[in-house]
Amino acid sequence: MPSVPPQDDVLGPDYRVETITLPPDDEGPVFATVVTLEPEVPNGRAVLHVHGFADYFFHDEYARWWVARGYTFYALDLRKYGRSLRDHQTPHYVSDLSEYFAEIDLTWWRITERDGFRHVVLSAHSTGGLTMSLWADERRHPEMAALVLNSPWFDMQGAAWLRSRATGVAIERLGTTRPMREIPRKVSEVYGRSLHAEHGGEWDYDLAWKPLESRPVYIGWLRAVRHGHARLHRGLDVPCPAVVLSSARSFFGEQTDETASTHDIVLDVEQIRRWASSVGRHVTSIAIEGAMHDVVLSRPEVREQVYAVLDRWLGAWVPEG
């Protein structure tokens, strides 16, 4: 499919942004967006990063950490997220996670065929971690050098009945017959406020693209996620080494800025660790003390640990060739 020529990105002139035109869906035209940051001294390697739910790529520090090591950094804003969201679209909605494979495939073509990289590290956060694991398992490209997962969403958190067979049947039926039905839920703004610079956090990002209160959840979308969980639970076989980074602890009580900044208050880290080995045959699971849900947005001293751990893991398990 055609793409708009690269332009400067909202993160600044160091970044280039490409808009990819995808086949339209029931809501109309569909787009995805690739953001690229290049190193001064390239090492012939690249990173492809995918964001999480109610999110988009704004992680300048994370990108520059890779670029400082010679990697060319590519980030993909999936359809109906961030840079790719249009007024006529329902934010983040898909009926099957494999719908995202189209833009991942087209970005992969740009990285490996157009730009010629033969060593690519996959990186993903939260729901993106589930999607990228499924994509990597299905595509199994020889250029995949490693998979870095930041708090991937591997199961339905909450009470046991949410994961029961009866609940699964209900999600399947309603997700098929009434896919756009919104699921009632209470969402605290604490996590968003703990991140954003205008509310006491460290990071500046577009609140229209990443709202403090998250986004609505639709039953058809949740059905798609649960299908993805089921595939993962049956066992994937991602061919490259994988590392799963998470906070050491979750907290689901009364939320404060302190708990949001030092715990995962979005996902259950015990579930993340339980299912980590389902990604493939070579998986390292690392819990970071004091990390938040998006571990690379944690407090500075915790981020130092995250990057040190990632650096050691890459040196130990990911070949440079």
UniProtKB/TrEMBL annotation:
User: By what name is this protein known?
Assistant: Alpha/beta hydrolase
Where on the tree of life does the source sit, at the highest rank?
Bacteria
Does the keyword section mention Cell cycle?
A: no
**Which of UniProt's keywords are assigned here?**
Hydrolase
Q: Does the keyword Kinase apply?
A: no
**Which parts of the sequence belong to the Serine aminopeptidase S33 domain?**
45-162
Q: What's one Pfam family the UniProt record gives for this protein? A: Hydrolase_4
Per its UniProt record, what Gene3D superfamilies does this chain match?
A: alpha/beta hydrolase (3.40.50.1820)
Q: Which SUPFAM superfamilies match?
A: alpha/beta-Hydrolases
State one molecular function term (GO). Answer: hydrolase activity
